[in-house]
Amino acid sequence: MIRPDPKNDIPEGTAQAVMVYRIHFTIQDLARTRVAEAPMPLHELELAARAVQSRSEPARLDDWRRRVRAQLSAQARMVLALMPAVGPSPGFLSPAKAGAVEELLDLVRGTPRERVRTSLREAAHHHPSLPAWTRRLADDASLFAELCTGLGHLHASLLAPYWTQFTEHLAADRALRMQHLLDGGVEQLLTQTNPRWMQWKAPVLEIRMINGADRDLYLEGEGFLLIPSMFCTRAVVTDGRPVSVSYPADQDRRPRELTTPAAVSGHAHSPGVSTLLGRTRTVVLTTIAEHHGCSTKELAARAGIALASASEHATVLREAGLIRSLRHRNSVLHSLTPLGLALLNTPVGG
What we know:
There is one protein chain. The chain is 45% helix and 15% strand. It has helices spanning 27-31, 41-52, 58-69, 74-82, 101-109, 113-126, 141-158, 163-192, 271-277, 279-290, 296-303, 307-319, 338-344; strands at 18-24, 33-35, 198-201, 204-210, 215-218, 224-229, 236-238, 243-248, 294-295, 323-328, 331-336. Strand 3 and strand 4 (204-210) form a beta hairpin. The model is unreliable at 1-16 and 261-268 (pLDDT under 50).
């Protein structure tokens, strides 16, 4: 399936026809409307890939663009050829799913070749100038593997160094949307999430699309998902199941520029901690220190590891007395013990 054109980065001053995407809700859809619980790395990567090739938000993004463009490998540039600044892109490259990046990359690697072939055929219809190598992509296993390698490289350059900063901001945005839901129900949620580009006219959500699709979409009881994004500047409709719309995360609190955060913010620790625990387990312990009471699912998303791996590392840390875990309903919530805090705060040579 080809993704609808988000038209996020139309150059200012360009005359464009404004069209409307009308999403029709039933009572069941309203009951199943929700905000994404965790960041979706490859979905966000597609939006970042578009942003790095555009001129939008120069004050916030130009320094970031200069840094990441200098790091792009040849394989990463292959991916950019399929994710233009403006226009549709093949949906198999950017599944709207939460999880560890490696797991999502494996999902892309396992895409059925017929789906790859169909998506590229549709992309070529919209972009006749696609590189010649794309015609071989579905049938050439080594070429497809190179593209998937490029997808990993692109994530490492565009998102990975900033992921802690992003997850913090996206979590804050989700808390804001949940407050809207508590204060005024789904109506307030849909009205205030992205008022410049989305208008709620019960039972229809109208989304303005610059030179994009003008159509009616019926949810048919399968629900609706809102996805906050650091790179989305308008509204991006993903016509899957459930239908989702990406929107700019709370712009009033959005960082004015993207800066590479320290590897572990707020809890500098001796290199000996990593030697003792191992790099991944140190990241898990630090994540719990910075996000007191986080669930195992949230821990996995913030640490960038699989859910099973997060659960395993948390078990080891708990048995060592470095964290405590409490069950709350269907979740297990983790927090640091005094011993865990003392270990993280051990000075170099201490």
